[in-house]
Amino acid sequence: MFAELSATSNFTFLTGASHPEEYIRRAAARGLGAVAVADRNSVAGIVRAHAQAREIAREVHARQEMEAVDGPIGPPAPAPQPPPRANMPRLIPAARLCLVEGWN
Asked: The whole model's pTM is what?
């Protein structure tokens, strides 16, 4: 299993470009088991990443409940479709510590 452990969000100014929510959505779409949002000297992106992870978990549980009752959702279609969300990546809270004076 692969887990991204150094994703820097846009809360690390001039370094990270993506929103924490985008990291979680992409991890779910790619089937990653976990992702760590590690901003520089901060855990600012964790709250939004956590909220997105909870939303994805809610969507996955709702889909699983519907499929348990009605079977797989949607008619068979010859055109390729994106796979449904069935993965709930685990969020690993992290911070990248960059000390000015080094370790004491």
From this structure: 0.76
Question: By the 8 A CB rule, do 44 and 100 touch?
Answer: no
Closest to 20 measured CA to CA, from 6, 37, 35: 37
Domains in the chain: ranges and CATH = 3-71+82-96 (3.20.20.140)
- Answer yes or no: is pLDDT of 25 > 60: yes
Residue with tokens 């079977």: 71
83-96: burial string, b at 16+ Cβ within 10 Å, e else: eeeeebbebbebbe
Bigger pLDDT: 66 vs 39: 39
Sheet bearing 34-40, strands edge to edge: 3-7, 34-40, 90-96
- Rounded distance between C-alpha atoms, residue 54 and residue 50, angstroms: 6
Q: Are 42 and 95 in contact (CB under 8 A)?
A: yes
Confidence of residue 79 (pLDDT cuts 50, 70, 90): low
